[in-house]
Write a structure and sequence with these properties.
single chain; alpha/beta; binds S-adenosyl-L-homocysteine
Length: about 350
Amino acid sequence: MAAALPIDLADLELSAVEQALADAGLPRFRARQVFHWIYRKGVTDFASMTNLPRDLRVRLAERFRISTPLLVHEARSVDGTRKFLFQLDDGKRIESVYIPDTPKQTFCISSQVGCAMDCDFCLTGKMGFARNLTPAEITGQVRVLAKETGLLDKPFNIVLMGMGEPLHNYDAVMASMRTLAEEQGLAVSPRRVTLSTVGVLPAMEKLASEPLMPNLAVSLHATTNATRDKIAPINRKYPLEALLEACRRFPLKRRNRITFEYVLLDGVNDTPDDAHRLVRLLGDIKAKVNLLPLNAAPGIPYQRPSDDRVNTFAQILADHHITVSVRKSRGRDIRAACGQLIVEGQKKSTGRRLAEAIEAV
Ligand code: SAH
């Protein structure tokens, strides 16, 4: 019989690491120390966990492993943004982005390889969906970014705005958030985490009852079902009214608000009428709006509106007392900006063709 693969501790929450140690006849309380090494110190080699007894280190190494996504490439933008390309155990690739000084330090991480949501303006969507990431692969991105940027012991924010739809990989994403929040680990409070969703309603409703809840961002992108059906096809299943009703019901702590992301596509959803409709739709929701002028790319059938059109749209919201910001695109020179994360060499050929087209520009 083939030997079973050693258990990957990076895939387990703290309580499960404790249980795994106990099951192996090892002292449970050591799990916290192991956790501290992995997450706070960025050490994954048992032999280097110097505050553990030597024989325990040997026994841990016999029974367990700690996997880390392999960092294969890093690109640095002139604006300080850094994009990290990771290779996973099965050869699939994902990207994460470090966005410094906004004024906070932010890690934008992926939740899936590709994405099944198929939004018409998003390059990741054009790749198609390959698979969900495991908790080890989600938290692993944060571990590597924290180490590479020297932030293991410093505060940073996390946005689940990389590749994938986090609510389409609910269990792994929530397990990762709990692991990242552990005090003996990176201690990332959920207040520092923003989960962005295009509106997978059943999962959003489940999220509403989580004890540990991140900030919520909703990718709205349109003010009529006709337009949203076209640019964000999930709308055909969960239309605008239902999405906004779920937002209304979403429990918010005092002073907290839902961020509505709104990608501006020239002539499609960026008219003054759209802006006024948006004001009405958000009327009774504690909301702020983040406008994302399209990051255009070959293969994306839309254009970025002029700055004038963007400003007119933003002004209408501001005139109606809606807090609005226009997202400055960081890292566009290294294709690290919103909706530009796409990895070559994956299954779907459209993705590869697009990536090649972009490399060529
Ligand atoms: N699936 C989640 C997480 C992706 S977050 C979601 O949809 O919210 C990435 C954000 O960038 C989303 O709001 C997405 O709609 C937006 N985006 C995608 N492609 C874009 C592009 N080409 N230009 C600007 N924003 C884009």
